[in-house]
Design goal:
single chain; alpha/beta; 3 domains; four-stranded parallel sheet; two-stranded antiparallel ribbon; 13 helices; globular
């Protein structure tokens, strides 16, 4: 229901949630998690319209697009945190996060003998009975048992979660995250369970734009005239991108009912991330070759992604 509210209503709701969180912990007790991506850009802009000096934190893994890291440098009052382990060491020790964090956690646990994870891979519930919902995981059995590819969720944990948790312990600040429930079943479930603001538990957190959709994010950026990170390209009406012709002149566009899209990458984040690589046949990695050949070669040869991609494309 909330995802269907008009954008102006959603903005007011997000402002209320940020205000409540900041009022509870104080401006010195919170921070905006800023990745340089479009979702966190909207989150940061809404927050800084209310609190211009609110702190932002960027997790600098060195695995982001170089132009995105430079883009983050243009924003004031941003602290940087860094991981303790290099990506190559993480992959050598723990493996790749593929095809999603949820499935990689399940495969890691199943290979370590956790019966609940083995049940899930076989489409069974925790009691060993067939589950309609868990049928979707059966296709990942061969990745778990028929391949020698190391799979785990530790890439994200080591590169991002641990550094920001350390920052929170050291500063006493609590995060305001630009996460959309729309992005995954896992995020939807978390939002339904805790709501936008969670003041309880081991990690109080605010997710004020959870009920935004991707189109809300793009329209907010369009309306506010914000500049997105270079890897996204430009935001424009679908149909006017990639050499296509949009049928209506700009002054006649009804932007509230016009679907927007990016001319470049749809998602940014870590350049070498394999999450969802089976869905586009590794297109993101192919684009990396055009973007930066040296990074592509490091990824394929030094990190060993060539072997992983070949197996994925052969089996999925």
């Amino acid at each position: 229901m909330r995802q269907n509210y008009p954008l102006d209503v959603k903005i007011k709701m997000a402002e209320m949630r940020i205000s409540k969180f900041v009022e509870y912990y104080g401006e010195s007790g919170v921070y905006i998690s800023f990745s340089g991506g479009k979702d966190s850009l909207v989150d940061l802009d809404i927050a800084r319209r209310l609190y211009p000096n609110i702190k932002a934190v960027f997790c600098d893994t060195w695995m982001e697009y170089p132009s995105l890291r430079a883009y983050v440098n243009t924003f004031p009052n941003v602290d940087r945190v860094k991981p303790d382990m290099l990506l190559k060491d993480i992959i050598d020790r723990f493996g790749w996060c593929f095809p999603s964090k949820d499935v990689s956690e399940m495969i890691w646990a199943a290979r370590n003998g956790k019966q609940c994870a083995i049940n899930k891979l076989n489409g069974l519930d925790k009691n060993g009975k067939p589950s309609e919902f868990r049928k979707q995981y059966i296709k990942w059995n061969k990745l778990c048992w028929d391949s020698d590819i190391l799979i785990s969720p530790y890439c994200c944990i080591e590169q991002k979660e641990k550094p920001v948790r350390r920052y929170e312990r050291e500063t006493g600040r609590h995060p305001i995250l630009g996460l959309l429930a729309q992005e995954s079943a896992r995020r939807t479930e978390a939002w339904i369970r805790t709501g936008c603001n969670s003041f309880d538990g081991n990690r109080p957190v605010s997710k004020p734009i959870s009920f935004f959709t991707e189109q809300d994010v793009l329209r907010y950026i369009w309306y506010r005239g914000l500049v997105v990170a270079p890897p996204y390209g430009e935001i424009c009406p679908c149909g006017s991108c990639c050499g296509q012709t949009y049928l209506f002149p700009a002054e006649e566009m009804d932007i509230d009912h016009t679907r927007l899209c990016c001319t470049g990458e749809k998602r940014t984040g870590c350049i070498f991330c394999l999450v969802g690589a089976h869905l586009d046949r590794g297109a993101k990695i192919k684009r990396l070759k055009q973007y930066n050949k040296r990074l592509y070669e490091y990824c394929m040869e030094e990190l060993g992604m060539e072997k992983v991609l070949k197996w994925i494309l052969r089996n999925y």
